[in-house]
Amino acid sequence: MWVMTDVVIPVKDLSRAKGRLQNILTPAERAGLVLAMLRDLLTTLNQCALGDIWLVARDAAVFDLGAEFGVHDIREHVSKGYNHGVSAGLRSVNAKNSVIILPADLPLAKPHDIAQLIQAGAGINPTVAIVPDRHNRGTNGLFLSAPDLITPDFGESSLFNHKVAAAQLRISAHVVPIEAMAMDIDSPEDLFAVAQSTTSNSTTNFLASIAFGQAAWTSHKWEVA
Questions:
Q1: Cβ–Cβ under 8 Å, residues 131 and 178
Q2: Fold classification of 5-220 (topology level)
Q3: What is the pTM of this model?
């Protein structure tokens, strides 16, 4: 039987988005960056064979963007943290489907990257597949063959946490390095790398629109040394 894969994307409050970039971007620019990256991710997902896509957030701007792509929304009245948002999303997806959990800040991900993550767990039940961040500590993509398979535990050591959670239940866990998904945007260095990439998308266009590039990096480099 063919099993569809749903997607859950928790989005942190725009007012507190990307705090580590506060020395180089204004609050409005940081919010705009998050929305640009989310647009790129939704554009990529729109080209994939998937089930339903769920956004978990509080901001109307996030839901307005999601509506352009026909995705479902879960409106949090009070932010209780990223993992709470993940859990809310998992309660909403089709219980018969597999699911992938993605952060909103994956502007370089392409359809074949999403397919690679799903294929890592395809035909194996139960299974967990994990895309690590570039530091091999965090999780930038999590595939579960069933929404209630494990309790996701995102955070600084989430790669380890998810492997342990799977091992405790004797569930097969696959670590799937995917270069384009390893690059999320948390630091000025990350932002500059995306700005200098050959990719042309909403994120790079947004950075160009606020004149973020070599000059901006040079003038603020001392702040992140």
A1: yes
A2: Spore Coat Polysaccharide Biosynthesis Protein SpsA; Chain A (3.90.550)
A3: 0.91
